[in-house]
Amino acid sequence: METAENFKQGRLKVCKECSQSKYTFGVGLTCGAFMQPIEGVSCGCKLTWKTSLKNQECPQKKWMPFLKKEIKKPALKKVNLKKKDEDG
Fold it and tell me: CA–CA separation, 63 vs 51, rounded Å?
């Protein structure tokens, strides 16, 4: 089962292997220069935050395999809402 932490760690692994990721003093791992995005190349985000947000994307589309994997939630039990016949 995919957990939120596994989801984040999978994305972080991809980021750490990318040539655009860098360590920014006082911030940590960032995608390119912190808060200086380059369209289609880097977003300038703090990656320990961005990688945990399900609705975010890698500017180079390197997270595509992770977009298709949904974090599994417990299945909801179906409840029959029809009123039972009182006669039988």
Answer: 9
